[in-house]
Amino acid sequence: MQCPRDEATLEKQTVQGGIEIDACTLCGGTWLDKGELEALQRVHEHDHDNDLLPAQDRVALAYEMAKQKLDPHLDCPVCGTTMARHEYAWTSQVVIDECPKGCGMWLDKGEMEELELFFEREHASPDGQVDTRRLLAQLLAEIKVI
Fold it and tell me: What was the pLDDT predicted at 124?
């Protein structure tokens, strides 16, 4: 399989929980097949409590997110369809490229780590109550626009 950014051959790598992903050694991006992000979300091998961003850093993320939306669209490395670019879960400030046919998603360098921080932030509930924002974000992320 070829990288949608630079056409280098993607290499299989085993990450958290034994999940196998496809990574580009040139640009640092990652291809996740359908269901792999959700599997990674369930695995909690890294504790990111010390990495959670203060509010002022979120403004910089919003600026970077807006810039990314202007980049040329990528083609799915599995089926060749032009991928849809959108913010993951509408609250993560991480822009992903997702195959509209459901093959998977492309994460640019650093976006997997940013999503891990997002999952950690969303799972943090100071009073031990169910985090309804997290549940709503997950539900909305599952909805496919036709």
Answer: 61
